Structure formats: structure tokens, C-alpha cells
Amino acid sequence: MSENIASQNLNVDMDVQARSSDSRGGARGGVSLRLRTYGKQLLPPALAFAVFVGGWELFCRLAGIKPYLLPKPSDIVHAAAENAPNLWVSVYTTISEAVLGFLISIVLGVGFAVLLASSKLIERSVYPYAIIMQTIPIVAIAPLIVIWFGAGMNAIVIIAFLIGFFPMLSNTLVGLNSTDHNMKNLFHLYNASRMQTMFRLRIPAALPYIVAGLKISCTLAVIGAIVGEYIAGIGGGNGGLGYAITVSASRLQTAYLFACGLSASLLGIAFFLLVNAFSKWMLSSWHESEMGSEG
Amino acid sequence: MESLQTYAPLGDSGAQHLVRMEGLSKVYPNGTVAVQDVNLAIREGEFLSFVGPSGCGKSTIFKMITGLTGPTGGMLEVLGTSPKQALKRSDTAFVFQDHTLLPWNTVIDNVTLPLALRGVARKEQRTEAERVLELVGLKDYAKAMPRQLSGGMKMRVSIARALVSRPKLLLMDEPFGALDEITRQTLQLELLNIWRQDRKMTVLFVTHNVFEAVFLSTRVVVMTPRPGKVAAVVEVPVPYPRDENFRTTPEFGQLVRAVSEGLKH
Ligand SMILES: Nc1ncnc2c1ncn2[C@@H]1O[C@H](COP(=O)(O)OP(=O)(O)OP(=O)(O)O)[C@@H](O)[C@H]1O
Ligand SMILES: [Mg+2]
């Protein structure tokens, strides 16, 4: 018996060594390869960008287009630099609203989903609505929120939250209900309580779905914040990007409008990449498809 | 907090039999007769295999023993009581064809799961987990994640998880079905060794493989499909420990033939 086990261990050891040396070899070969592919991947889009911006600048100058119709790229940079302090405040305001709305939508979305999924009866009666609700265009009822909560930060955060809430809720619900049948049986056979099954099995198993919800909601939260500012933005020193956009549009400050729009896009992209990186890190502990190489 | 060492005594009646089936039948709502008139009395410490082609009701019998589905006829007694009551005593453990390890938990956290669910103290969980990981030869892999293990190693972890609660009844539904022949034979030997160290443990083992059934068991129950009936019960009167040499004896060949005969009905 003991001999048998010892030889078994040996086999197993060799197996694992073979695997890890494999992956190390793979990583070493991969570095230069990766640099090369990065170069191949980054260079063409960078060139395309340069050509596009250069063409735009040239076109505006040669055709003599009025800057309030289509500003030159140089006008936009100029406008951004001139109003840098204001722009920065606007960006900061919008980020705070979006992040706050996003965080609330995570907490309430996941929380409600867990609550709903804990009771078969509640879930069966509410589930269809929760799935359908995510298609409601929150923007359409945004003015109502302004009536209820008054213009300003509160209403904007609530709009950003609502727009991200339903995708969070329905994704989490779907995830909680997609637990592997055999695993559920196993927990049942070992006399697990509802709570134990929820926290030890269903929630961890739903993680990939929750993460998919995060990616959707974080983009929507930025949109929600900006749209919220269109309707409920208050001026003064610290209006957000949405507010700055409406104001510059009404004053025909098109270059600054472009600067604000670009900032909003960059903000949205940066926020998404951040959430994406966080999701990868969170899933890497167990989910195969997102698995990195192991030391 | 429960102690692992104390076994609840069996019910007064039928103490000599761990599982009793009398005229046991199961007809699914759609009319499928999965199990018909099965009579079996399983003694404590037996290693009993069920062999039979796909669809003859082997898994259905297991589902009834664990109370996942109720019989539609006859009597079924597990650990001297009803299947549902028996399940609550935590004296039964399970290994399926699919290893069903939680991918987000380490090997040791997977193994301690049955104890954690029962609220056993953490220290005791660890001691017991280390004991069973040693038994299956994986004590150096306590901190590994399941995805780092080969199929055979995952099955070992799954077996360790079943053994951790010192079960009286171990149900195994085609546990080695997904493994290659060499790994399968190694694990058969290991399973026999583990079982022999605790002769109070009764093993019910489902397989498609006649050789596997004869090699492992004290008795082989041969089943035929549609309706799922017991065609024959073949005793394997070969003493343990059994090793690789048993596979090449004439006796082994005869027993395999006897079981295969039963399958032809
Ligand atoms: N929930 C169910 N509802 C209806 N019929 C079922 C159900 N589960 C199993 N059956 C049927 O009952 C019969 C026995 O199924 P069972 O799973 O017990 O077979 P098995 O012997 O375990 O087969 P295998 O070797 O393929 O696992 C089959 O004909 C199957 O189609
Ligand atoms: Mg089966």
C-alpha cells in the first residue's frame, strides 16, 4: 500500500513538473512574440489616427469651414487647454456621479438578485419582470426622477444608478439560476442549508455572470450620468460634462463641445478598461477562460 | 458541533442490513419503468456493484437510496430508516462520474466541504482532510486548485471528500467512467485498500465495466433494462487483499463469464 502510494506521488510530481515547465517555456517564448504582435497591432491604428486627424485639419483649412460648424482638431485642443480648469471640474463631477451610481447599482442589483433567488416563490413571480425591466429606456422616465428628487447631484446619481441596476439584477439572477445541476445535488445530499448553498455555491458560480453585468453597467452608468446632467444638471462652478455640453451647444462653442464629448468618451473607455481589468483579476482565481499563467 | 467519532446506532430493527429493498419499483411519471421488483439486502461492510447496460435503472436506485426521488412501489430501508431520514444522519457519502469539485476552492477546501456544511470545528476539519488526502496520495496538493490537477487526481480529491466524514455508506456512480484504463486500474487498487482499512464502510458501486465489478466486489448485482430488473446476483468469494494477479486467474475469468451471462438475459 505505502509503496503504491509513494509511486503514485512520484508520478503525480512528474506530471505537475512537466506542466509547469511547459508553461514557463511558453512564457519565455511569448515575451518577444508579444512585443512584436503589440507593435503589429498598435502601429496601424496609430497611423490611421494620424491620417484621420491630419486629413480633418487639412480639410477644414482648405475648405474654409466655419469653426462653429466643424472646428479643426487644433481648435479643439486650444479650447480644451483654454478651459482646462472648467473641463477638469466637469470631468471630475461626471466621474463621481457615474462611479457612485455604478456602485449603488452593483450593491442593490446583486443584493436584490440574491434576495429574489433565495425564495422560489418570490423569484418565480418577479423574475420575468426583472428580465423585462432591463429593456426599459430609463432615459424616458428621467424627468420623473427630477420631479421626485429635484435637479442636481441626487437625481443624476439616481439616473446613473437606475440605468445600470437592471442589467446587474438580471445578469446576477440568470447566473444564480445557472448553477450546475450535479453541484446542487451534491449540496443537497450533504444537507446544506439554503444560505450555505447560496453563499458557498450559487454566488461563486454566478461570478462570471455578475462580471458580465459589471461590464455592461459601468458603460451605462457613464451614459446615465451625462444624460442625467442634460436634464437635471445644475450650473455654477461644478456642472458635469453633460451640463457643459448643453451650455456650449447653446452658445455655439462647438470646439469646446467637441472637447467635452471627447473627454466623455475617454472617461467611458477608461472606466470600462478599469472594470474590465478588475473583472479579469477577480475571475482569474477560478474561471478557466480568463486564466493567466501560474507560477 | 458534531463529533465525527460517534456513530449513531442503527435502528433496532434490521440492524444487520445497511440497505434493504423489497419489491422496490420506480415508474417515472412519463411511464418509464426504470426499476421493477428489486429485492436486495445489503450487509454492513459489503462492496456491492451494480452492472448493467445504460438505462437499466442503476442511477435511479441510487437516487431512491438518497431520497432524491421516491419509490413508486415496494419498500426501501436505508441505515434502518427511511432514505430521507438516513440522509439527515450524514452517514452517507457520494462520488459521481463527474468529480463535482468547486473550481474556486482549493483542494483542501473542497475536501472539507461536507464537514464545513455540518459546522464541524475548523481544526477538526483540517485534521480529517489531511488524513484522507494522505489516503488518496495527495497530501502535497492541499493548496492546489482543481484545474491544476489531472483527471485522475481530481477523482482522488472527490473520493477524499467522500471519505472525510467517515461514512458508513459510500455510493459511487460510475466514478471511474471518465478515466483512462491505466488510471482506472490504479484507482481501483487504491479504493480497495482504503475500503479494507475501514471494513465497517459499505460501498455501493455502479459501473458498466464487468471486469471492474468482479475485481472490486464481494457481490455483483446484474441488471437488465426495460424494465430495470435484477437478472442475477453473482457472489465473488475471493478473499482480500486482491492485487493485479487476481485479474489473470482462471477464477476471475469464470466470474466475469458468469456476470456476462447474466447480462445477456
Ligand atoms: N427523471 C426521469 N424522468 C423520466 N425518465 C427517467 C428519468 N430519469 C431516468 N429516466 C429513465 O429511467 C431509465 C433508467 O435511468 P437511469 O438513469 O437509472 O439508468 P442508468 O442505469 O443509470 O443508466 P446509465 O448507465 O446510462 O447511467 C432510463 O430509461 C431513463 O431514460
Ligand atoms: Mg446512471
- The number of helical segments of chain B is 9
The largest sheet of chain A, given as strand count, sense and whether it forms a barrel, is: none
Number of strands of chain A: 0
Tally the helices of chain A: 10
CATH class of the largest domain in chain A: Mainly Alpha
Shape label of chain A:
flat
CA gyration radius of chain A, whole angstroms = 26 Å
Characterise this structure.
The complex is a heterodimer of chains A (295) and B (265). With 295 residues, chain A is mostly helical. Helix content of chain A is 83%, strand content 0%. In chain A, helix 6 (153-176) packs antiparallel against helix 8. By secondary structure, chain B is of the alpha/beta class. Chain B has one domain: Rossmann fold, CATH 3.40.50. Chain B has helices at 58-65, 83-88, 107-111, 113-117, 122-135, 151-163, 181-197, 210-216, 250-263; strands spanning 17-27, 33-43, 47-51, 73-78, 92-96, 169-173, 202-207, 219-224, 229-235. In chain B, the strands form 2 sheets. In chain B, strands 5-6-7-3-8-9 form a 6-stranded mixed β-sheet, sandwiched between helices. A 3-stranded antiparallel β-sheet of chain B has the order 2-1-4, with helices on one face. The A-B interface holds A 1, 4-5, 8-9, 12-13, 15-16, 19, 180, 182-183, 185-193, 196, 200-201, 204, 207, 285-288, 291, 294 and B 66, 68, 87-88, 90, 92, 94, 96, 98, 100, 102-104, 113-114, 116-118, 137-138, 140-141, 145, 147-148, 150, 153, 186, 189-190, 193. The complex binds adenosine-5'-triphosphate (ATP) and magnesium ion.
